[in-house]
Amino acid sequence: MTVRSHVSSPDFPDYRGTMEYFCLGCGQRYPIDQLHYTCPSCGDVFLLEDTGFESLKNVSGAAWRDLFDIRAATKSDPLRGIFRFYELMAPVVEPDDIVWLGEGNTPIVTSSPALSAQLGGQRMAFKNDGQNPSASFKDRGMACAFSFLRALMRKKEMKSLLAVCASTGDTSAAAALYAAYVGGGISSVVILPEGKVTPQQLAQPLGSGATVLEVPGVFDDCMKVVEHLADNYDVALLNSKNAWRILGQESYAFEVAQWYDWDLAGICVFVPIGNAGNITAIMSGFLKLCELGVIAKPPRIFGVQTHHADPVWRYYSQPEGSRVFAPVKVQPSVAQAAMIGDPVSFPRVRHFADKLEKAYGPGAFQVVQVTEQETIEGMLLANRHGHISCTQGGECLAGLKKARELGLIGADETAVLDATAHMLKFIGFQEMYFENSFPPEFGITPDPALANRPEPVITSAEKADLTPEAFTVKAAENIVARLGLARK
After folding, report:
1. Within this chain, do residues 268 and 400 fall inside the same structural domain, yes or no?
2. Coiled-coil stretches, from where to where (predicted)?
3. Which end of the chain, N or C, is surrounded by fewer C-beta atoms within 10 Å?
């Protein structure tokens, strides 16, 4: 491939790769002419590899940086979002296949000085992935997955396709949104754990016209159902077992690197683990940039888990060389998207964590555990200082505080916290905290100092006894008394 045509032209890239499914268990490879989720030979999970990736190394790291920076200003829809990094993700789809709904390019917002001071002057920032179209990071993966589904349907002349996913809320919202936009014979079904999805998140797939089915239990139960469907019926699975989704979510890493002008010295990235797809993608993305010389070194990666769903933390808390992974029975968590006891992408996490530590030494990848109390108060603390963090973002802030306590990160390092969704999706948990109405199984005791409730200014009965003019004066006088205002 040539540098000139890429760097000097805003046109869609001419590079096309050759993608293959690669099994992490037995090493078998499969073509992408059909959908695969688990290896037919051994049942393990897949990654997707571009067998032409080595040819990308013929372009210098500096040229790649110039190219991606130029594309950041494009007005071409196929290159405006995550496919700005086309050659590094899914370079088998054509421009007309690409779905762009405004996903990607989410800002990294430096924390307020007051919030930083509460953590001993810690340098920190939130990457607001809640500013994606369906208000969560899942749109990154869906944009890639649906772009490939478009390409596959076109090549195979398919008239219809049913897309299915299990979800705690964000996946279903993203899948339903993208299916509704793409249309063309694609319809979506989402399977949710009954009573364990917030009203805001439930409203999203319903509003997008998806068929919404509920299953008693937790996310892991729903995941087993959709895995059975994907193994035995002609459906497209859209959970993170779908390796195309992992590719799309790598864009998070590319954007972090670009935001810091491709210099990640002193950067630490905190990511909630959940089903482990996102942290997998982020590690993979940074490693790709290193291979191409786009960055010199990846940031240190911290995975965070609540003690109510912590199988990955338990695995890495064991002595190296004798670690055994075991699923856990989850307990209720305010970080609903992280309430997963048997993450399907754990083999991918182990794969990339091993690569990071082998190349960059101990501490390149770590996992910290936080409590439910720390998680919800992390969200409240962030948002009281001008952020829009979800509970998973609160989990990351709690993880940063825990890392500080354990001496794993210094104040001179910059912590980038993954706020995976918009806080409004989880507003019910804020309400439960303010009202002190958490069920006992959450193990949360609200701090009254953090509660914030509306206060009445004047009663309806008092208003009824006053003229409109007198009501205005009386209400204003009550507000003056409450706030201690001084007259001009």
Report:
1. yes
2. none
3. C
Q: Which of 243, 267, 299 is the last residue of a domain?
A: 243
Report field, pTM of the whole predicted structure over 0.85: yes
Predicted confidence at residue 10, as pLDDT, reads: 59
Q: Return the bridge partners of 23, or none.
A: 46
Please say which residue of 243, 260, 287 terminates a domain. 243
Domain count, the chain: 3
Question: How much is the average pLDDT of 360-372?
Answer: 96
Instruction: Note whether 319 and 336 are same-domain residues.
Output: yes
Alpha helices for 208-327 (secondary structure H): 219-232, 243-249, 251-259, 277-291, 311-316
Nearby residues of 475 by Cβ (< 8 Å), 6 or more positions away: 457, 458
Token digits for 106? 């989410």
157, part of any domain:
yes
* Residue 10 in domain: no
Evaluate whether 246 touches 48 at the Cβ level (below 8 Å): yes
- Contacts (Cβ under 8 Å, ≥6 apart) of 221: 193, 215
Q: Residue 442 maps to which CATH number? A: 3.40.50.1100
Confidence of residue 3 (pLDDT cuts 50, 70, 90): very low
Q: From residue 415, how far is each of 169, 257, 271, 278, 418 by CA, in Å?
A: 27, 13, 11, 17, 10
d(CA 189, CA 213): 7
**Statement to judge: residues 116 and 259 lie in one domain:** yes
For residues 233 and 300, state if they share a domain: no
Tell me what the pLDDT averaged over the chain comes to: 94
Residues 158 and 215 in one domain: yes
- Rounded distance between C-alpha atoms, residue 355 and residue 163, angstroms: 33
Share of the chain above pLDDT 70, in %: 98
- What DSSP element (H or E) covers 261? none
Q: In which domain, by residue range, is 338 found?
A: 108-134+250-449
